[in-house]
From TrEMBL:
<dbReference type="GO" id="GO:0005525">
    <property type="term" value="F:GTP binding"/>
</dbReference>
<feature type="domain" description="SRP54-type proteins GTP-binding">
    <location>
        <begin position="271"/>
        <end position="284"/>
    </location>
</feature>
<keyword id="KW-0694">RNA-binding</keyword>
<comment type="subunit">
    <text>Part of the signal recognition particle protein translocation system, which is composed of SRP and FtsY.</text>
</comment>
<keyword id="KW-0342">GTP-binding</keyword>
<dbReference type="GO" id="GO:0003924">
    <property type="term" value="F:GTPase activity"/>
</dbReference>
<protein>
    <recommendedName>
        <fullName>Signal recognition particle protein</fullName>
        <ecNumber>3.6.5.4</ecNumber>
    </recommendedName>
</protein>
<dbReference type="GO" id="GO:0008312">
    <property type="term" value="F:7S RNA binding"/>
</dbReference>
<dbReference type="GO" id="GO:0048500">
    <property type="term" value="C:signal recognition particle"/>
</dbReference>
<feature type="binding site">
    <location>
        <begin position="250"/>
        <end position="253"/>
    </location>
    <ligand>
        <name>GTP</name>
    </ligand>
</feature>
<comment type="function">
    <text>Involved in targeting and insertion of nascent membrane proteins into the cytoplasmic membrane. Binds to the hydrophobic signal sequence of the ribosome-nascent chain (RNC) as it emerges from the ribosomes. The SRP-RNC complex is then targeted to the cytoplasmic membrane where it interacts with the SRP receptor FtsY.</text>
</comment>
<comment type="similarity">
    <text>Belongs to the GTP-binding SRP family. SRP54 subfamily.</text>
</comment>
<keyword id="KW-0547">Nucleotide-binding</keyword>
<feature type="binding site">
    <location>
        <begin position="107"/>
        <end position="114"/>
    </location>
    <ligand>
        <name>GTP</name>
    </ligand>
</feature>
<feature type="binding site">
    <location>
        <begin position="192"/>
        <end position="196"/>
    </location>
    <ligand>
        <name>GTP</name>
    </ligand>
</feature>
<keyword id="KW-0378">Hydrolase</keyword>
<dbReference type="GO" id="GO:0006614">
    <property type="term" value="P:SRP-dependent cotranslational protein targeting to membrane"/>
</dbReference>
Length: 298
């Protein structure tokens, strides 16, 4: 991810190297190249416009035009603006003050929710937490089983409806899971919800019903960064239909151009909290905007 964008930006900065003061034409040419690089990386147009506008304005300021090394100054500005569009500070998980912390996952089918649920459980376990996974995806026949397999891989128990015991609907399962967590002293409850192939109102309603029933401390929207511009549209649809506190980007190990990862925080106003970057259970961590920006400008 970001390989093309990184190369493009590096070329842009190379053109500035060795230049003394920057002329208006130099700044315009640089802004144009940054604009093309971002558009080619699939960054959403409003985000590109804002980004380039900010870089241009700052580049015209004293700090750059008077600087001995304008190229370095521009790189610094682009870095800082990248951190800004990526959401600024690292967003950390908020834990409940009393009782178990409830985390609900929402997103499209195939986004990587079930995998993510187990990765998050492992990550929490490594920090001394005692999570429980909850199978509230009762749409896809294999989803419960898949969560159980993933839970087994990370050694975290899975709460799932047992056939015939009366908790067959996702809202009841989610509600019952909180009681189970309290009984068995689990301090974090991770609820996996159903995802459809496309955004649909029934799915949204189900997720909203679960949210209303369990009042999660964090609703996380899980999205596949490989789906490009669609990720931003889906993110907006879930924001309107379900609402969430933060975003989790999956499949950052892929060769997508990176636009989704770059635009999503800026377009939705919600921070990216976690990133998932591989099939292994340990391919997962908090998302750090500053590290991501540095990686792009490496
Ligand atoms: P769900 O339908 O949202 O629950 O998605 P799944 O968890 O079943 O994931 C869909 C597919 O994406 C599976 O084949 C996962 O192994 C794969 N997957 C999930 N996360 C990642 C990731 O970060 N990187 C890669 N390369 N594959 C992933």
């Amino acid at each position: 991810m970001f390989a093309t964008l990184s190369d493009r930006l590096a070329d842009t900065f190379k053109n500035l190297r060795g230049k003394g003061r920057l002329s208006e034409a130099d700044i315009d040419a640089t802004a144009r190249e940054i604009r093309i690089a971002l558009l080619e990386a699939d960054v959403a147009l409003p985000v590109v416009k804002e980004f380039v506008g900010a870089v241009k304005e700052r580049a015209r300021s004293e700090e750059v035009s008077q600087a001995l090394n304008p190229a370095q100054q521009i790189v610094k500005i682009v870095n800082e603006e990248l951190v800004t569009i990526l959401g600024g500070e690292t967003r950390r998980l908020r834990y409940a003050k009393t009782g178990p912390t409830v985390i609900m996952l929402a997103g499209l089918q195939g986004a990587g929710k079930t995998t993510l649920a187990a990765k998050l459980a492992l990550w929490l376990k490594e920090q001394g937490k005692t999570p429980i996974l909850v199978a509230a995806d009762l749409q896809r026949p294999n989803a419960v089983n898949q969560l159980q397999v993933n839970g087994g891989r990370v050694g975290v128990p899975v709460f799932a409806p047992e056939p015939g015991n009366g908790v067959g609907d996702p809202v009841s399962v989610a509600r019952a899971s909180i009681e189970e967590a309290k009984r068995k002293l689990h301090d974090v409850v991770i609820i996996d919800t159903a995802g459809r192939l496309g955004v649909d109102t029934e799915l949204m309603k189900q997720a909203a019903d679960i949210r209303d029933a369990v009042q999660p401390d964090e609703v996380l929207f899980v999205v596949d960064a490989m789906i490009g511009q669609d990720a931003v549209n889906t993110a907006q649809a879930f924001l309107d239909g379900v609402g969430y506190d933060a975003v989790v980007l999956t499949k950052l190990d892929g060769d997508a151009r990176g636009g989704a990862a770059l635009s999503i925080a800026s377009v939705t106003g919600k921070p990216v909290m976690f990133a998932s970057n591989g099939e292994k259970m340990t391919d997962f961590d908090l998302f750090h905007p500053d590290r991501m920006a540095s990686r792009i400008l490496d």
